[in-house]
Amino acid sequence: MGEEQQPAATTRLAAATIDVLLSYAARATWPAGFVIYQRGAPADGVFIVVEGRVILRSRVRAGRGFIPWIATAHETFGAEGLSTAPRYTTEARADDEATTLFLSGARYRSLIREQPQQATCLVAQILSERSALLEKLRELTTMSVEQRLIVALARMATFQSYTRDDGCILLSTGRYRVLCELVGATRESVSLVLGRFAGEGLIERNGTALIVDAGRLVHRLDELPLDDLLAAHASGIPASSVLL
Questions:
Q1: Fewest CB within a 10 Å sphere: which of 56, 66, 88, 222?
Q2: What is the pTM of this model?
């Protein structure tokens, strides 16, 4: 499996930290679509993605959900297991095949005692991701559906398995659902915006799929206030997607 291209603004655990974690954590590989844990299940420890992606989803109602976070290589998920209320708050599902490390609470405490520097790096990563989640919350409360859609498409463009060789996103039915849940809007609302983009020639239709060149939507971001641009950048848009 090839290494995922990472957003420029997203911090990741260093390779040296991953090497140390390999001695403390259990390694597992999950097939695409596998549910690693469900919301409300007892939690313990923290997961670290080695390869692939893991989608965290909150169910809104039957057939609908919201994706607050997609964990990619050298990022974490499931850190609720280190809290004083250790129950998972989302469902975690492997997007493509994913390899993870699981650091239990007991092994985490051993890591703190024996490798305090690397334990500090792990905590710093978890806090960085918490900051990104707060920015995501800010997007939901301050940005329009169109603005959030552009942010989500720019994020998806960093995932190699979502793009063609020319860098364009190929939006199939399954990926369209992921896009709607990343935006935090109904399919109808997202379809209206995408229809407007298609009418303006910014995206193409290919049968039942959509072909999206995120770079062609950049001028839309120029209409955002500077503060919103900074929030979008902190949420994972590569600098090249905003500035080129």
A1: 222
A2: 0.80
With b meaning 16 or more CB within 10 Å and e meaning fewer, what string describes 95-126? bbbbbbbbbbeebbeebeeebeebbebbeebb
What is the chain's pLDDT, residue by residue, as a tens digit (244 residues)? 444 433 334 589 999 999 999 999 999 999 999 999 999 999 999 999 999 999 999 987 766 789 999 999 999 999 999 999 899 999 999 998 999 999 999 999 999 999 999 999 999 999 999 998 998 888 888 888 988 998 888 888 888 778 888 888 888 888 888 899 999 888 899 999 998 888 888 888 887 788 988 777 766 666 555 444 444 444 444 433 332 2
User: Do β-strands 45-51 and 76-81 pair in parallel, antiparallel, or remain unpaired?
Assistant: antiparallel
C-alpha to C-alpha distance for 153 and 79, rounded to whole angstroms: 26
- List where CATH 1.10.10.10 sits in the chain: 143-243
Give CA angle at 196 (55, 145), nearest 5°. 45
Closest CA to 176 of 160, 158, 188: 188
For domain 15-133, give the fold: Jelly Rolls (2.60.120)
CATH number of 143-243: 1.10.10.10
